[in-house]
Specification:
By secondary structure, the protein is α+β, with helices and mostly antiparallel strands. 38% of the residues lie in helices and 19% in strands. The chain has a five-stranded antiparallel sheet. The chain has a two-stranded antiparallel ribbon with strand order 1-7.
Length: 165
């Protein structure tokens, strides 16, 4: 399934604070290192580049928005939540999940483009290693997957998205 590798939080913080918006870079075709599993007029879903859990997916609106509720009309927000639901269900169909974590993270100081994290906690993880402990790279690094593993995972998720569409 993969191995955990150390994560350089200092380099990452510098990149997200000084570099271009990584989500806009994906949408504009300037970043092809992420595996996109779904993309429509509302949002985009892609594999996390530095997952802490297997089958960790990010969902973002296609329009650069920075405030998780304030930058959306109710209808726009609900449309994104429907997409998040579909992605969450696709994730649950691909991997055994004790609990599906869905949260919006980011900051006005970095990762400003609103996005949601969809991360499946596998069954059997001790309670002390769940919740925020399961999501932080400080605890155990990130889960490294080969390009082949990431490609296969993206394909399976995309198939589930198409089947639910």
């Amino acid at each position: 399934m993969g191995e955990y590798r150390p994560f350089d939080t200092t380099a990452y913080a510098r990149q997200i604070q000084e570099g271009p918006c990584f989500i806009c870079s994906i949408l504009e075709g300037r970043d092809e290192t992420h595996h996109v599993i779904y993309w429509d007029d509302v949002g985009i879903a892609f594999l996390s580049k530095f997952p802490t859990l297997y089958v960790y997916v990010l969902v973002a609106p296609v329009v650069h928005r920075e405030h998780v509720t304030g930058d959306f009309s109710v209808d726009e927000y609900v449309a994104l939540q429907k997409l998040i639901y579909r992605v969450g269900e696709a994730v649950r169909r691909v991997v055994a999940t004790e609990r599906l974590y869905i949260l919006s993270l980011g900051s006005q100081q970095g990762n400003r483009h609103v996005h949601w994290h969809i991360a499946p906690l596998p069954p059997g993880v001790p309670f002390e290693q769940q919740q925020f402990a399961a999501l932080t790279v400080d605890a155990h690094g990130y889960l490294y997957l080969t390009e082949e593993q990431r490609g296969d995972l993206a394909r399976r998720l995309a198939e589930q998205m198409a089947a639910s569409g």
